[in-house]
Amino acid sequence: MSTSAQRTQFEKLADALDSGEFQQIRFVLNHSLRPAEVARLIEKSPPKERQILWNLINTDLEGEVLQDLGDDVQAEILSRMDATEVLAITESLDTDDMADVIQQLPNTVMKELLRIMDKQNRKRVEQVLSYPEDTAGGLMNTDTVTIRPDISVETALRYIRRHKEIPEMTDSLIVVSRKDSYIGILPLTKLLVSDPNITVREIMVTEIEPISATMPDNEVAVLFEQHDLVSAPVIDDDGRLLGRITIDDVVDVIREDADHSLMSMAGLDEDEDTFAPVMKTTRRRALWLGINLITAFVASAVIGLFEETIDKVVALAVLMPIVASMGGIAGSQTLTLVIRGQALGHVEKSNASWLLSREMIVGAMNGLLWALVVAAVAIVWFQDTTIGIIIALSIVINLIAGAMAGTLLPLGLKAVGIDPALAGSVLLTTITDVVGFFTFLGLATMFYS
Amino acid sequence: MSTSAQRTQFEKLADALDSGEFQQIRFVLNHSLRPAEVARLIEKSPPKERQILWNLINTDLEGEVLQDLGDDVQAEILSRMDATEVLAITESLDTDDMADVIQQLPNTVMKELLRIMDKQNRKRVEQVLSYPEDTAGGLMNTDTVTIRPDISVETALRYIRRHKEIPEMTDSLIVVSRKDSYIGILPLTKLLVSDPNITVREIMVTEIEPISATMPDNEVAVLFEQHDLVSAPVIDDDGRLLGRITIDDVVDVIREDADHSLMSMAGLDEDEDTFAPVMKTTRRRALWLGINLITAFVASAVIGLFEETIDKVVALAVLMPIVASMGGIAGSQTLTLVIRGQALGHVEKSNASWLLSREMIVGAMNGLLWALVVAAVAIVWFQDTTIGIIIALSIVINLIAGAMAGTLLPLGLKAVGIDPALAGSVLLTTITDVVGFFTFLGLATMFYS
């Protein structure tokens, strides 16, 4: 189904919702759309419509739809259910998806849910839950198809044919020892073209190292991208096979990782629900505004130091935002580049000094270029050469300061374990504001006194 | 290979480069690392080291490494080659990867390359090149394994076994008619568990619609994500099979799409090379600073209107950046949320008005909250109640303006075909600066005259 077809689908649904044609909506939700598409419709509906849509979904689809929703929306829907209801709709999910849903539950409901679950399922879920959500263990599924290395290709084929179906995204069988230790993988494409009489051991692939359950999920994503994997085995510290990770879950990690920098730089959470209700949104945003207010007050305090000078030359008040703003823009460009470079794993200690010099040279050159332009405008505007010299000097200085801060802040923040995307932009603006106002007004105080 | 192992690998390489131990580096590049890992090393090296590394790679690996590099770095390396050299190293690549590389070449070299290519290859490459890079046609490979619907499962298995190997990422065979029209797909997992005597037609999957070659690549990504696909067939307007798209290429689209918003909002290109040389970087950044300078001058001009008032009450100059800054921050949060929502396909006409009201209410509420705080501080600081009232009013107004601009700008820009991530932040700052300064200084002029 193309997205444009889906778009009209959504418009139709919106109309149907408005006119209360629930029969028709129920049919579309449960029969025409896939669970992932229903999840998308729910995510892009305001809160009231969301509730209506959710209630129109058949119980047997609820689990699939639920696991396709963003964390925030999931938590909202789950907050209205008790353990028995949650169990009923999640029982049929993959282990990792079930674990993801369970982690959105309040602690008491989660415990209750695990208590009433059947024993085998609980063991599986608890194993996945025992690893943090953002590690390989938290991403894995337990639906592996395993074989022994010493059987023949023909026997392997016969063994597979005894299955009614093979789990989705199975591109290889996992070869394990009698004690379930990981040995290698046998891609289906290889199995299908091999001589039936040779053994699995002779054709299995052992170059690809299995993934340790404690590996962070962004490193898992790098492995999948670099090796073009569809699925990969996960092992514990003793080399025993625990499960496998499939590319569909890795794609979610990649999307979230990439969203993270964008959203964090604006003080938003990457799971942020676009249609969250007013109160929740207000609370979350208030904090960010408060932090930025401190920055703004620091800048004001710097200006306050030079009240007398401004009183003497009012033109300074007119021009000072230009200095701060140019430094802020140049600094943000560097900051964004470095944060992206860190996320891609490009920027590290060994190449940081090259990057810092490049940025400072670029800052100085662009500073000079635009300083001349601004100086010319200022001189013509206020018929005052001094103010042109002052603003030119302070723009060059502030652009170099912005380049330095934009490079060093993310490196330093990462080194002390603070998320550069979250704290970087606030700190950067503080620095370029303070340096900008202080240099410009300070120089003016010297020149005009 | 874990990324931490790779990191030490990189540190070692950097040391080896410094001490000129090229033998050792040559060995690591050509024997210990995969092409994707070599590409990553090159990407995170400054220009000079890059050239050295590239020269140490064996010719037979150069093609694989090249296609794993970012567009910018690719173009840089290709600029030093002629058509014969490019052909030699790219001949063995997948059709879509070869087409990607060719598109980085200057026009004359590209034509020369196509001229000296063998006929069959040229036909394939030209077919991929005939579709824009950012469509399904530009993403596809021509390495499909096809079968007819009327043969039995047993015959299909025998047919496959005649292949020496099956292309990587083959999770299904594609069922086509005698005239190569697309009919359906047969997942390998299904083939392996089916009764050998029934026909392909009985077990093939026809629910998944094939992808049209002209579909934009971000819609392809949505399809892959929603349907958890590993590969999907691509057809032309007549329903004839052209090739297939595989998840590894879709992952690149997802990563680039997500990077696009982040980088564009800072006026950077998503293909931007972290270690681009000074001159290239300076030129690209200069433009962005110039555009932002216009914004800054507009803000200055607004302040200039009120020079007399500022001359009377210097405290205004000290406090005015707070009003502009708070509006800018609040507006950026809304803008980022809406741009992300657009990229995910959540925000569209039918839910835009709900979003606009929510944002305006949130803006007003947070405006009120922080207006009170700022007013209190201002009154204590300057011992002046009037200034408190003025700043409180203008903060509320500017936060609402920021919320409106943050919602409406990306919607409007998208409607007229301008990239909201690129133009949005500049326009937003212009609006919040102008509204902020004008309201604050305008109100002050009324109150103090």
UniProtKB/TrEMBL annotation, chains A, B:
PROSITE patterns: CBS (PS51371)
CDD domains xrefs: CBS_pair_Mg_transporter (cd04606)
CBS domain ranges (all copies): 140-203, 204-262
Molecular function terms from GO: magnesium ion transmembrane transporter activity; metal ion binding
Matches recorded under SMART domains: CBS, MgtE_N
Chain segments annotated as transmembrane: 286-306, 318-339, 360-381, 387-409, 421-448
InterPro entries in alphabetical order: CBS_dom, CBS_dom_sf, Mg_transptr_MgtE_intracell_dom, MgtE_N_sf, MgtE_transporter, SLC41_membr_dom, SLC41_membr_dom_sf
Alphabetized UniProt keyword annotations: CBS domain, Cell membrane, Magnesium, Membrane, Metal-binding, Transmembrane, Transmembrane helix, Transport
Gene Ontology CC: plasma membrane
Membrane disposition: Multi-pass membrane protein
Function: Acts as a magnesium transporter.
NCBIfam families attached to this UniProt entry: mgtE (TIGR00400)
Family: Belongs to the SLC41A transporter family.
Protein name: Magnesium transporter MgtE
Organism: Pontibacterium sinense
Phylogenetic classification of the source organism: Bacteria, Pseudomonadati, Pseudomonadota, Gammaproteobacteria, Oceanospirillales
